[in-house]
Amino acid sequence: MVVIKSIASRDVRTPTSLDKTGSDGMNLSPDYSAAFCIITTDSEYTGHGMTFTIGRGNELVCGAIDLLAPLVVGKPLDELTADWGKTWRYLTSDSQLRWIGPDKGVIHLALGALVNALWDLWAKTLGKPVWKVVADMTPEEVVKCLDFRYITDALTPEEAVALLTEARAGREDRLAEALRNEAVPAYTTSAGWLGYGEDKMRSLLKQTVAEGYRYFKLKVGTDLEEDRKRLTIAREVLGYDKGNTLMVDANQVWSVPEAIAHMQALAEFKPWFIEEPTSPDDILGHAAIRKGLAYTAHGPIAVATGEMCQNRIVFKQLLQAGAIDVLQIDACRVGGVNEVLTILLLAKKFNVPVVPHSGGIGLPEYTQHLSTIDYIVVSGRKSVLEYVDHLHEHFVHPSRVENGHYVTPLEAGYSVEMIPESMDHFTYPGEKGKSWWQTEEAKEVLSAPRVRPL
């Protein structure tokens, strides 16, 4: 029996604002960061989970992890995993912590880190990657992992079992594809950051085409003419009839009318979808944008969102309202693996493809498991998954892409355990002589303006 002895949080930040990696219309100078949750036990096994942020505020998530920790310290792992749905409800039921949510914000980000760390620990004790833990479950066992509170008007436990049972047809063939590294096609955002110059963007597009990618995403949402210039360069490299698919992402910068007008003006570049065209909380706004872009002069433009949708309830409403064509779960903004499974089943019920958000440190490591679960266990439909080729070298088991597909992870766990030296190097504020944040070079980042001048 494995007993949880302690939980520690770690504030890890990488200075990606120096080269504008991750920059977009809303987030000009992000520092890719992670609030880590590390579980120690009375055995050799440890659990590692994290939640992605972009710098300031990471310490708040770490503080929230510390507040949640007493709920599981001292408990046997078997007790927590015997009825995962009950455990997940238990972890969201501290009424004083729930008051600063509920099921959203900093407390929910911390929950995602803790829940994912528990899954990492559990998978390690079972000797399996997280995706295989779920793939080896019966439909009834998967459904037992879920909390159906607030969603039974859209999906009942009985419906979920039926959907999972239906998806078992062809499962062995899909599993074989995963073991051949053919289950999860990758798309790249690496050339698309707004802070990159035209030459760098063109060079990276050519490089990623040569590496076998066929799906490419660029950031938009600043100046219309600048967007047109960048998309013209993209289409010069990608073409229109070479089997390459283009997507664009506005990161919430527009109002509803602005989103419709701006994307109608960019329709000639034939993007598959516009991601985050407006506020992530505006369900009816997304529905209006979807309607406004269904018939452009150059064909329909799909609407995608999800990286900042906070829980299964918001996703339920997006789906019920017919507001999105593509659902983009985030592995840790929602409450970890359990809530992700719920959302995958909602997407299956409403026949909407899932394209997880992976633009951040540790996110491709997580989401490779989730897309594999979706394909093998839930939807049976092959989709695509974002791959951002940055910072993977800092993980014990980094995600990899070969021939345009994710290499299916086979190591036990959830793949986000960070190399200890890397964690020390990027801990904030960290120790002098160990942490980059205590160096002279760091002063440039620490003193940079927080927002555009008034």
TrEMBL record:
> Domain of life here?
Eukaryota
Database matches in SMART domains: MR_MLE
Q: Tell me which cofactor or cofactors this protein depends on.
A: Mg(2+)
Q: Which residues form a coiled coil?
A: none
TM ranges are none
Give the Mandelate racemase/muconate lactonizing enzyme C-terminal domain ranges. Answer: 198-296
As its record notes, the protein acts as a catalyst of: L-fuconate = 2-dehydro-3-deoxy-L-fuconate + H2O
Does the keyword Iron-sulfur feature in the UniProt annotation?
A: no
EC identifiers of the protein: 4.2.1.68
This chain's protein is named L-fuconate dehydratase
Keyword annotations for this protein? Answer: Lyase, Magnesium, Metal-binding
One Pfam family per UniProt: MR_MLE_C
Record the organism.
Sporothrix stenoceras
Quick check: keyword Magnesium in the entry?
Answer: yes
Q: Which gene encodes it?
A: LGD1_2
